[in-house]
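Dear colleague,

Following up on Tuesday's group meeting, I ran the structure prediction for the two-component complex that the binding team flagged. I've pasted the input sequences exactly as they went in, so you can double-check that nothing got truncated or mislabelled along the way. The structure tokens for the whole assembly follow below. Feel free to forward this to whoever is handling the docking comparison.

Inputs:
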Amino acid sequence: MSTLEVEPGAAPESGLVTTDTLDNFDEMSCSLEEIKNINPSIEDEESNDNAIINEHFDETVSNDNEVASVDDDFELNKDWIGKDKHVFVLSMAGKPIYSRYGNEDKLAWLFGVMQTLVSFIQSSDDCIQSIHAGNTHFVFLVKKPLILVTVSKTRESESQLRIQLNYVFNQITNILTLTRLNKIYEQRQNYDLRRLLSGVERLIDHLLTFSENEPSVMLGAVQCLPLAASVRDTISSAITGACSKIKNLVFAILLANNKLITLVRMKKYCLHPADLHLIFNLVQASESFKNSESWTPLCLPRFDASGFLYGHVSYLSEDCQACLLLLTVERDVFFTLSEAKQKIVEKLRRSNCLEAINESLSTPGESSASAGFVEIRHYLYKCKSTSQFYQPILSPPYTQTKEPLTRIYKRAHHRLHNSSRPLKLMFERSADEAILAWDTKGFELFVVFEPLIDTSAAIMLVGRLLNWIKKKEERLFHLNAPTF
Amino acid sequence: MMVTQIIAGLKNFFIFNSTLSTKEGEELKKILYYYPVTDNTDVQIKNVGLVEGIVQFTDTFRPSSPVSSLHTNKTRHLYYQPEKDFWLVMTLKLNRPTKEKELSNESEDLEDDIEDSVYQALLKQAYLMYRLFWGTFRDAKNTDALKMTLELFYRAYLQSMKLANADILNMFSGIQYLPLDKDCFLKVQTFVNCLESTYDFIIHTSFLYNDYLIWSGIEPSDMQVVYQYLIGTLLPANVEAEMQGGSIPRNSPSPFAALRHGRFITGPSNLKLAQTVGKVPKVYLFANGESQEFYLVVYRALSATVCLFIKGDTELNLELFKTLDDVINTKLINIVSDIADYCSKQVITPNLSDTASRYIYFNNINLAYKSTAHLDNKQSGNLACPKESVRIAAEMKGNIPFLGQAGETIVKTMNDCWVVMKTSNHREFYIALQQKNASLIDISEEVKKLCDTELKGIFFNQL
């Protein structure tokens, strides 16, 4: 189909972990221990965490008797029933932790039913996966010490829904660390986790919308802000220059508008796209970062679920809305990092990089038609080795609402990566559009065509498209994987 | 035969109605049928309770249709509510690869990637077949009578279910038709009309040649159940008997001698010796909106089968069967030899090479299907293409609702097989191709050719 020797966007080294779709979410590394062992200056924090938990334990458990009558709830909540996707999180003991819509306490009876279902199936040494009823799919993720359930009418596949539940789980560990989460329930099964998660609901809400609408979650990849290779390199070296002497700095991430500008990392360590998505979500959902420099602990579950990294988070400047995160294992180096940030901004200003970023942010980007592909409505291209993807901006008929396009992609992606019968290629023509989905060793491609296109024209266009992306790859992808 | 055999892949199968008992401690009264008997009453009550819980839980969210399946790591549960409050439940054992797999190598479990819709169809079929012979659950005289007939019916029926070989054909539950020339078809129709107008107790008639339907006076939705019964149960049993020298002498001196041997296969099989009319099954048809009762009298001569749907209140006696035999036999023999002549001229030697493309065709309007991917229609699992391709076809069928009025899908599997689906005008056409090095363009060309030769005269939107 194409004459390319190396797929567009491929690079010898990648700052992001290479992802295959639907990869194993249980796999977690323990990079923190390694880093701490190399630089053993970090004090143990265990004792502190325990203190917080014990403090909370003294409060009395309330709400146990508040079981709302089922009928009342229905009367109140026609709107609630009609929601496209519910997400519930509960403890193994059936304690409500999170509900996307409605008040958890009023839904206590429902959480009870879900817990009963899970434990009923568990009693025969089995595990519940899903329930299907017409347009409604109920997907369960039992991940000790939590149970996550989604009730969806969105037509997403079971595996796609399960990935979203995994993201919610990761968001919770992002705040607490898995170690602490486990410890809490070891000490007290009946613990009301909401006490530790106040304010996190907002992040989970935002994450759910993010994972529903952004192709990045489906693809397990990130999109880069288009920049000339020289500009990106200058930015990377500005960061390296300012940070190279700082001990135990693990990642420096610069992003804007949900797109990656650069990622600088400690030698040997890579960032998993799923962790980066959590960071994107955090930045997007937190307006407060815009006002001042912040210092925030966060756990990146794919990097190390057992402990925290500490992040210096700030926007570059009033006149450049790119967000810089400096992640370290040290707990108290805010001022060191704040200083480094100032240096970075100065350098970027002097080398006109801020302008370049602003310019890229303000240009709407290219549609596939304006790039010369009139019969192609939209496409997603993912380079597997670097876990990065590119998509053109939306063009009609998807400018009014993006939803049909998202749905087409999700269906095609599911068919291609169906765990029991994966496919190499799929071409599907419906009354509204035609889609070609293609999975190769190096890349994944989804192209949406006008419905009347014939297969030979489609193949020819795909070949031309790949060549076009190859030509633009330096601008569209982050091809270097700089280290401090 | 009271000992119930273990059915490969089936964990349990039960029917219950929650409204039969609302008192605690009397849950057993809800259960109308339960397989296997080896599950003690506690287990039975627990399993029914689980379904009740799931039905209630799912109803909370007002799904577009009631709950149809539950997936767990080791099992697949299928639910079907054919009549209000009556639930049929079937639980399948799955062989999910685990670390301990070596320890318990249960070959009788089903593979773990089965399609819900295929087994949903199987469960529905299990209900429809019961309804054909016993009427609806609701119309049963009383609960005890219902329990008895359910026991009687399902004990045998479950043994005949071929769980492991269920595939897209179960979703169609289709009928194979025999295309005939005008002359032959008219002869069949005249024969049927003549029967129905001479005997006013014959309400409907169906006419089959081998496994192919030529004429049916009943609605397709009823015919598909009757057809499954004929092809799956009644005819194979009789063909076997004939093979063993039952009614047709094996080494008859002249082929014409056999022609005299048309006979009833429900009712008195040997009219000369018969003292009574024998066993004539009653069937219930529903297409007209209400249940109608008929005697199903089946007459077979050579390769032809005539099904007479006789008014349920008719008094059947030997005299009546003798007259029918006289009228049917002579006329039928002539028609059958005409059909046989016609068919022998039409025989095309099928392309048996491994790389030839195989197809499955289904028409949603008249429920007609044709398959060159299956080597027989006995659900034996004998396929002329990879099993994977047929499974992908079932998956594609599930996607049709998303395509709108018409559409096509072409996929290439990890093993470089191609599967193509085209749908238009309520027709579905699935093609499995084994051309490893072909490109998408080659495949679309190949499919175009195949549509031209195999689907002549069938309108397919070229989009």
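Chain A touches chain B through 49 residues (CB under 8 Å).

Cheers,
M.
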